[in-house]
Amino acid sequence: MIALLIGLLSVAVIHPNILYLVIDDMRPQMGSYGHQFMKTPNLDNLASQGTQFMRAYTQFAYCAPSRNSFMSGRRPDRTRALNFLTTFRDAPGGQSWVTMPQYFKNKGYFTSSAGKVFHDGMDDPISWTYPSNQTRWYYCSQGDLIDDNSNFCGITEYSINQLTDEDLAINEGIKRLEMAINITVETQKPFWVSIGLHRPHVPYRVPRGFWGSELYPYDTVLPPVDPSPPNDVPFVSNSWMNGDILDPQKGCGSCIVPTNRSTIYRSWYYASVTYSDHIMGKALSILNQSSVANNTIVVFHSDHGYHLGEQNEWSKKVDTELGTHVPLIIKVPWKKPSKTYVLAELVDMYKTLVDLCGFEEVQNSVQGTSLAPVFDDPTALSDKRAFSQIARCDCNVTKLGWRMCNANACVTTPQTNMTVMGYTMRTDQYRYTAWYSWNTTTLVPNVSDIRGEELYNLTDDRGVDFDLPAYRESLVNSKQYSQILIDNRQYLSQVVGGWNTNNDSLLKLIIEKRVYK
Asked: What is the 8-class DSSP label of residue 231?
């Protein structure tokens, strides 16, 4: 009998379940990330039981390209999904690619999702054994308490719609999670269930009890330490004229949102984070009360980072530290909880979960690095780098003497009309960005034609300070950093060139520093 139990346990450890939780537009501003004023008890508790990645990054700082990347396990240059017009299935060879959940489906898992996991309207039915439900959006509506620009809205007793997006997503998500748990208990068939929430995406629509003014009183909320634009950066880097927050004062480099309004916007963003924490807590509670919790890996992350007025940005769609830095927590019940400073990427999730679940082979086109060694040694993979990118279009916009690109234009601009592509490499100490011209014929960057560069010394960055002075000081014109600039420029151009020739053997040599150190 004892031998039989040991055998069953060994099988369970090899093939665990996966609960995959995704939140939209959330930066790593939680209690567990050092922001004690934040009310995020459920995610903080998850962090205390898992591995918290202090420096994790998206590959593209807005929704659709990011999700096409991490759900397929391919970088944006491979998925060719650079905006809202295409998906990874439209890429050369994309029809035959196996997505992350589809991989587990092919291994015999029950797979399903609810809410925003793949980007809205870009679901991938072949990935699921049970149909997903991409639940709808609820925007500000009659009876809500709404600010002048519909940035936030509080549900009142007079609201004609008493439900939130999150109500729909969690109800459908719990339905699938409970179904999956029952199947696992009855048949030993493992599961992959994903739940995705919209908030804290604008508008910040939350019920009474979760209003910004209730949870985070305006007079207690701090504004950004320095909302002015960074120094010595190319004009293509910013998204001042766009952004999610609508305010009459914003729209150029010197157009700063007044403190009295910035603290209100921040308050409602924080409240939306707390509300999503509350909703995710419902799914975590269902799992924890089940008999399969000790054999279920839980993944939580957002799709990209976010600015709340720092560097005069109020959104994503930038290739900055704050625009790409995401919360990432992975609970593996049989691994010791820890914090790690490895430079993780969302594209790493595919290979990481394959390894943690005891599988090996993946398609050759799957990219990223398995983070599995980190769960045994938080200092592992210390030489790893993180990469991200963003496109720019319509770059002849001016306001009050400030030249800008229309960042929003790129979301619906065909790749044949894009102007530049910014690529960033994050190392342990530095953050380097090169803005390459875009070849509208071959649809790849011209790595020999750099239109602008940025370099930041982030030696003191521990992943918790959104107002770090170093984020505002590009060092491209500093003689002290001239050789570091040259080294990063050469390394990044080789990596990006490797992506766009699909030469994974060369890329492996570069990343292992055998070609260039």
From this structure: B
